[in-house]
Specification:
One of its GO terms (cellular component) is cytoplasm. By secondary structure, the protein is of the alpha+beta class. The chain is 34% helix and 31% strand. A hairpin with a 2-residue loop joins strand 8 and strand 9. The structure holds manganese (II) ion.
């Protein structure tokens, strides 16, 4: 089974995460940041993987440390659960419409972290979630997972819809990329290694 679990404790956050790439349940998210919980739930359910997150962060400051640190741990768990990456598709791409907004994600589980994010949000906050933390989450996740990640909101009006489209697209692209493909012998690289 491709699964991994981790507890991480700092002076800013205390985080407990379990990931199973080969199960679709349970998905249970509790970070104290409602909108972020909503996004991670969509991320996991569209990604078709099981994800349990319990985070206690310094929300009396703001949601920055909590969102960033959860991104770090989820990224680490993906890297660990994927192991040597033998047989996985490696690439995934998804367009996701959410009413008037259209989100796009294309990614490569390459071992080379790189983020391209092209998105603008009108609302600075959604509940106690700062919308600039979308970048912080993606940055933390892709660095620690070793993923080349391109994310874009092509158009849209409503900030909630725009961010939701990105997280659903991220889940769907990941679900393709992590899938074991019987046609792929070894790792999907002419180099023979995905670090
Ligand atoms: Mn929603």
């Amino acid at each position: 089974m491709r699964k991994s679990t981790k507890q991480r404790q700092t002076y800013e956050t205390s985080i407990d995460v379990s990931l199973n790439l080969d199960a679709q349940a349970p998905v249970s998210i509790d970070t104290g940041v409602g909108f972020f919980d909503h996004m991670l739930t969509l991320f996991a359910s569209h990604g078709r993987f099981s994800l349990e997150v319990k985070a206690d962060g310094d929300l009396h400051i703001d949601s920055h440390h909590t969102v960033e640190d959860v991104g770090i741990v989820i990224g680490q768990l993906f890297k660990e659960a994927l192991g040597d990456k033998v047989g996985i598709n490696r690439y995934g791409t998804a367009y996701v419409p959410m009413d008037e907004a259209l989100g796009f994600v294309s990614l490569d589980i390459s071992g080379r972290p790189y983020l391209v994010l092209d998105a603008e949000f009108t609302n600075e906050t959604l509940g106690n979630f700062d919308t600039e933390l979308v970048r912080e989450f993606l940055q933390a996740f892709m660095v620690h997972a070793g993923i080349t990640l391109h994310a874009r909101v092509l158009y849209g009006i409503n900030t909630h819809h725009k961010i939701e489209a990105i997280f659903k697209a991220l889940g769907q692209a990941l679900s393709q990329a992590i899938k074991i493909n019987p046609e792929i012998k070894g790792v999907n690289s002419t180099k023979g290694l995905l670090e």
